[in-house]
């Protein structure tokens, strides 16, 4: 039945968990507190997290984002992004006697430690990930050239030819599709049964939880929207998961300003989630924009609770 005010009715199924993870929250706090403690400007090597709204807000506070350490002066603090950096970067900062803070997510650092352990044990490492992503660049940069081979998809897994098939180890990027990664690992295990697997899964808890929430909702939705930036790997994976799980359509939106109103007009049930680097106010803004045009019922669908927190560097703790 059409509402008395002739506004179309829409149902929003709101995924939970969604939005910021503990690693993103910690990285943003590191930049904020570094500015508070040392004044501006504070330089940040690469986007601290992959979200344009977050980056713009930190720029307004006094952060300057650069791509390389060479773009930073010696006399101002520099923060390394949550994605991790090659070992050469902190080594170069130390050589210049720079004051630097490392905002690498502890779950990414865990992958770095695993890779170093496997390398020390003489294993060649296969890294499942996306070429060119900062996390992959940081992880491969923990070891000497040639120590690691990137596996991007099932084709790579099926065609890779090792020098020593009985002396391999596996690590993964933390923001991958859980299902796609499992398919790749299955191929590698069939071909190399003795490959050393991660002690605990490398894909982070937040990525896993957000994908599970999307799967729970997507098949009911005419449209599934994921809030996140085009540079955000975990946000793009959520769109892929929604498509594969049966959503009528799925798309990435930056926020309320990116809504496809002609498409929304045709959809009755809309799924909504946000990538791990997207602040909650963007979700609130999308819901407010929908409510400005339609009679909207919002139903949160929660698959699990998250209570993970990561400590700040000692020098920034209150």
Question: Topology of this protein?
Answer:
Layout: E1 9-16, H1 22-38, E2 42-45, H2 52-61, E3 63-66, E4 78-80, H3 88-95, E5 100-102, H4 106-120, E6 124-128, H5 134-140, E7 148-151, H6 154-159, E8 168-172, H7 178-191, H8 205-218, E9 223-227, H9 233-244, E10 250-253, H10 261-265, E11 269-274, H11 280-291, E12 295-302
Parallel strand pairs: 1-11, 1-12, 2-3, 2-4, 4-5, 6-7, 6-8, 9-10, 9-11
Helix pairs in contact: 8-9
Looking at this protein, list some descriptive labels.
19% strand, four-stranded parallel beta sheet, single chain, 12 strands, Rossmann fold, alpha/beta, Cobalt-precorrin-4 Transmethylase, domain 1, 3 domains, 318 residues
Describe this structure in words.
- This protein is of the alpha/beta class.
- The protein has 3 domains: 9-20 and 205-302, Cobalt-precorrin-4 Transmethylase, domain 1; 22-102, Rossmann fold (3-Layer(aba) Sandwich), CATH 3.40.50.11270; 106-203, 4-hydroxy-3-methylbut-2-enyl diphosphate reductase, catalytic domain (Cobalt-precorrin-4 Transmethylase, domain 1, 3-Layer(aba) Sandwich).
- It has 11 helices and 12 strands.
- The strands form 3 sheets. Strands 10-9-11-1-12 form a 5-stranded parallel beta sheet, sandwiched between helices. Strands 3-2-4-5 form a 4-stranded parallel beta sheet. Strands 7-6-8 form a 3-stranded parallel beta sheet.
- The termini are far apart.
- The relative contact order is 0.19.
- The model has no long low-confidence stretch (mean pLDDT 95).
């Amino acid at each position: 039945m059409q509402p008395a005010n002739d506004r179309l009715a829409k149902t929003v199924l709101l995924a939970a968990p969604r939005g910021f993870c503990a690693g993103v929250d910690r990285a943003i706090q590191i930049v904020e507190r570094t500015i508070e403690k040392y004044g501006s400007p504070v330089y940040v090597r690469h986007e601290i997290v992959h979200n344009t709204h977050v980056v713009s807000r930190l720029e307004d506070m006094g952060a300057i984002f650069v791509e390389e350490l060479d773009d930073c002066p010696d006399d101002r603090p520099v923060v390394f992004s949550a994605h991790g950096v090659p070992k050469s970067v902190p080594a170069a900062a130390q050589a210049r006697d720079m004051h630097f803070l490392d905002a690498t997510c502890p779950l990414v650092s865990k992958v770095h430690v695993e890779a170093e352990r496997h390398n020390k044990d003489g294993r060649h490492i296969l890294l499942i990930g996306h070429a060119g992503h900062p996390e992959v660049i940081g992880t491969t940069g923990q070891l000497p050239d040639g120590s690691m081979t990137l596996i991007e998809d099932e084709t790579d897994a099926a065609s890779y030819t090792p020098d020593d098939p009985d002396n391999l180890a596996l690590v993964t990027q933390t923001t991958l599709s859980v299902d796609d990664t499992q398919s790749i690992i299955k191929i590698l295990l069939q071909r190399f049964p003795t490959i050393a697997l991660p002690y605990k899964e490398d894909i982070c808890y937040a990525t896993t939880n957000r994908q599970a929430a999307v799967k729970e909702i997507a098949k009911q939705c005419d449209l599934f929207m994921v809030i996140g930036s085009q540079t955000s790997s975990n946000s793009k994976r959520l769109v892929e998961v929604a498509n594969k799980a049966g959503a009528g359509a799925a798309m990435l939106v930056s926020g309320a300003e990116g809504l496809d109103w002609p498409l929304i007009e045709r959809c009755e049930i809309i799924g909504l989630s946000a990538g791990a680097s997207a602040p909650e106010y963007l979700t609130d803004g999308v819901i407010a924009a929908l409510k400005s045009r339609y009679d909207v019922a919002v139903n949160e669908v929660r698959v699990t609770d998250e209570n993970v927190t990561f400590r700040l560097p000692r020098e920034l703790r209150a």
